[in-house]
Design goal:
single chain; about 260 residues; 5-stranded mixed beta sheet; about 15% strand; globular
């Protein structure tokens, strides 16, 4: 608790309960108060319940490009209760990341949110690859996919099952599941916070922990690992052979 809140920025927005990050940073300077906070943050995971305060989120929309308020250029950020978000960082994000790295589960192509990996590295690799292709006059096909809003597209049941597969205790996944399924979202604008909320339901399910969650990068890594493993198992390959002057293309399918 003390180590985590020593690096959390005090200007970070807190949730609707009114408990400011500064409160926790001040508490981290006292051993007894830190112990109380750490115990209260641990109880939901050891018992398997979700506090009401943890199930309230305020959504704000930030401009990706300053001065451009177009709806498709806005990023939705979820303001999550601070102690819940940081408990997720301590108990899930860090430990699951180390667990997946130790088991070498994360594909080599995944550079983001990994220790020892730089986000600029794939850009450099791409530039070097294109230089080699140009100099050797080879023919290549390149596919680039941008996982837009990936934190909001995680399949909750699949993620929870994968967490259990990696050894996360049942009580922890229960607490996370109850929080995700029962969270109510308000919307914050220039005029204040909306009195009307929206929440998860069978008719309109909500996916993932949301942008702003400390577990977002880790759970995306877990989901991407499952996607990559599934794609390799049922991949589509194309080979091309020259037969005289007419190229013959064969499509190879593997199940």
């Amino acid at each position: 608790f003390q180590t985590t809140y020593s690096i959390v920025k005090e200007k970070t927005s807190s949730s609707v309960s009114g408990r400011h990050v500064g409160h926790y940073k001040a508490a981290a300077h006292n051993e007894e108060i830190s112990s109380i906070h750490a115990t209260m943050m641990s109880l939901p995971y050891t018992v398997g319940f979700s506090p009401k305060r943890w199930r309230k989120i305020v959504d704000v929309m930030l401009e990706k490009e300053p001065g451009n308020p177009k709806i498709h250029r806005l990023r939705i950020i979820a303001l999550i209760e601070s102690d819940y978000n940081q408990s997720q960082r301590i108990l899930l994000a860090r430990r699951l990341s180390h667990r997946m790295e130790d088991l070498t589960l994360i594909p080599d192509m995944q550079y983001g949110s990994r220790s020892g990996k730089l986000c600029i590295t794939p850009v450099l690799n791409k530039q070097l690859t294109h230089d080699i292709v140009r100099q050797t006059k080879r023919t290549v096909a390149v596919i680039e996919n941008d996982a837009v809003g990936c934190y909001d597209r995680l399949m909750n049941p699949l993620v929870l099952l994968a967490m259990r597969w990696l050894g996360v205790p049942d009580s922890v996944t229960k607490s996370v599941a109850h929080t995700w399924s029962g969270t109510s979202h308000s919307i914050k604008t220039y005029f204040g916070i909306s009195p009307i909320t929206y929440t998860n339901s069978p008719q309109t399910p909500l996916f993932g922990p949301g942008q702003g969650s400390t577990t977002g990068p880790t759970l995306w890594q877990l989901s991407f690992t499952l996607l990559e493993n599934s794609a390799v198992a049922a991949s589509i390959g194309i080979t091309q052979e020259d037969v005289g002057r007419e190229p013959l293309t064969r499509l190879l399918l593997t199940s």
